[in-house]
Amino acid sequence: MALRPYIVGNWKMNGARALQPVARSIDRAVQGMAKVEVAIAPPFPLISGFSKEAQSLAIGAQDCHFAPEGAYTGDVSAPILADSGASFVILGHSERRQGHGESNALVRDKVTAALEAGLKAIVCVGEEGATREAGEAERFVTAQVEASLPVDVPNAHEMLTIAYEPIWAIGTGKTPSLDEIGAMHRAIRARMTALFGEEVGSAIRILYGGSVNAQNAADILAIEGVDGALVGGASLAVESFVGIVIAAAEVE
Ligand code: PGA
What we know:
Layout (H helix, E strand, L loop, with lengths): L5 E5 L9 H11 L6 E5 L2 H10 L4 E4 L16 H6 L4 E4 L2 H6 L4 H13 L3 E6 L3 H5 L3 H11 L8 H4 E5 L13 H19 L1 H6 L1 E5 L7 H5 L6 E4 L6 H13 L2
Helix pairs in contact: 1-12, 7-9
Bound molecules: 2-phosphoglycolic acid.
């Protein structure tokens, strides 16, 4: 892993205030592991409390609206997130794309809104099982990446992260083979350098997500071109999440 490893916990719609001690323990456990950048995206109402307490952890959100303010009942804008203490936002997660009909164009507008509010964006992409079986995964995912990103991203290597999350691997305990993950990350990297130039495109981190746990993390994070992980289920418990962070710290 040539770039600084980035391990992000996506708590999804889990974690009431009772889980604050979990965030606190993770925060404490990763202090001193400066080699790894560690972050958690809890549900919206927890962002403010978590971000006030966190010393080493970055706190972010799982979605934002594309508009900075306005009559959008139930939505949360990027400036409100930034004001609540979020430093990043996950966008285009497949559970948003599938459950809320989010298109690549909408994800792109949300990325623009996040960047304008000073939030870093983690942009998720990934194919369905049938697309992989048809041999179309790389073509589909690289097209999805390109269509989900704004054309102009100042400081893209700092503000942007891509998360490759095969939909069929999320929460299922299944993962692609290490070779398949490596090949997909190479394909995404090639698209990044084509879009942003060699220097910036090589410095944008590309995470893998989908059934990462403390047992498989070392192998996955050792794959060339995998710069970290987006972790769902295993980020809700201190031991498993910190185990993944330790695995990232130990990758040469
Ligand atoms: P999982 O979820 O780790 O529970 O598979 C990953 C994600 O959806 O980000």
